[in-house]
Amino acid sequence: MTGFRELFGREPDGRWAAPGRVNLIGEHVDYAQGLCLPFAIAERTVVEVAARDDDRVRLHSLAEQDSWSGTIDEVAPRSPDGWAGYAAGVLWALRQAGHKIGGIDLLVTDTVPLGAGLSSSAALECSTALAVDELFGLGLGGTPSGRRALAAACISAENDVVGAATGGMDQATSLLGVAGHALLLDMRDGTDRAVPFAPADDGLALMVIDTRVRHRLADGQYGMRRAAVEKAAAALGRPSLRDATLAEVTTLDPDLVPRARHIVTEIARVRETVELLDAGRLPEIGPLLDASHASLAHDYEVSCDELDLACSAARRAGALGARMTGGGFGGSAIALVPVEQEDAVASEVRAAFAEARYREPEIRGAQPSAGAERVG
Q1: Is the pLDDT of residue 214 over 60?
Q2: Among residues 353, 342, 298, 277, which one has the least CA distance to residue 25?
Q3: CB 108 within 8 A of CB 91
Q4: What is the dihedral of CA 325, 326, 331, 336, to 10 degrees?
Q5: 170 is a catalytic site residue
């Protein structure tokens, strides 16, 4: 395996890791100033990085088997494209925010599963941001407020350089995650709160079912959903749909009604889920997960046949609830499952995929984990 020294002729200054995330509930509402309830997972993207005394940026990914080289000044909207835009875009965004940084050599050695809906892109951005913060003495990584500033740079990288109109939930989770907790993110006022979420304590497991249907958030569909939500808010004379009511939603143009209805009902489901978790009633959230998936599939139309099948098969085998997670159009579903039913659920899902002649899904557990950190 090619190492840092072989690529760049020197040793790295350190290694940094940032987790992917699973969104328990609150999907596609981050850009509507909504409430989200994600948690950081154990799977991490790891980068080895060395600072440079010029503006050159040299990037290589073992997973992508690809390299990019340029200067920070050469980074611009849609350039570089592909995976490199997420890393190089962070440097561009930090400089745009007024931070004095130079170039870097960076090697991506490990990665959150790519395209699985577990936010491998944010994990790459956040590991890069934490490395740059330390190497150039920005002093942001040591406090929650500083980490929020790093998250803002990562969001800018994804929105402005990569061109994916994501809302910021993934980056906040990757940098602010707390082990044994989900993170209630208020995307209107920027606040966050750790909410107890430890399924094992209730004899439960949260399974992630990767359909292996790969998606790209920058392919236009994500942006179309966001544009519809913003159009609906404007039609109601509101800055966002955060405080809209279902009665108001019915007054919209018919093509906007289902999109807006998902936003309003999903935010309500997040509130209900948090109330149950705060009260120690985790097993009762299953129906809310089911309702979330139904809304995403039918009102927001971001599911796919494989995701729908994963959820229905999991429920048949004993899951308390199941839903797609992430941007959709592929990726992963999650299922809340009694520990004693894990094998049965996995077997049922695999059998259903085989019968439908889909690729065999990858199934793993998800543990609420800590956020980005230096690891070497």
Answers
A1: yes
A2: 277
A3: no
A4: -20
A5: yes
Segment 217-254, tens digit of pLDDT:
546 888 899 999 999 999 999 999 999 999 999 999 99
Q: How far apart are CA 124 and CA 286, in angstroms?
A: 31
Whole-angstrom Cα distance, residue 348 to residue 253?
41
Residue holding tokens 């020197």?
Answer: 10
Q: Where are the alpha helices (DSSP H) in the chain?
A: 4-8, 84-96, 120-135, 144-156, 169-176, 221-235, 246-249, 257-278, 286-298, 305-316, 342-355
Which amino acid is located at 25 in the chain?
I
**What stretch of H or E contains 193?**
strand 192-196
**How much of the chain, in percent, has pLDDT values that exceed 90?**
90
Residue (of 90, 80, 52, 82) closest to 65 by Cα position:
82
Sign of the four-CA dihedral 39, 45, 50, 51? negative
Q: Token digits for 100?
A: 């004095």
Coil, strand or helix at 335: strand
The CATH number given to 199-365 is 3.30.70.890
What is the reported pLDDT for 218?
46
Q: Which sign does the torsion angle of CA 210, 215, 216, 221 carry?
A: negative
Q: What is the DSSP string of 308-326?
A: HHHHHHHHHTT-SEEEEES
**Where along the chain do its domains lie?**
4-196+370-374, 199-365
Q: Are 273 and 285 in contact (CB under 8 A)?
A: yes
Q: What pLDDT score does 217 carry?
A: 55
CATH fold of 4-196+370-374? Ribosomal Protein S5; domain 2 (3.30.230)
Q: Which of 30, 133, 160, 170 is catalytic?
A: 170
Whether 4-196+370-374 and 199-365 share one fold: the answer is no
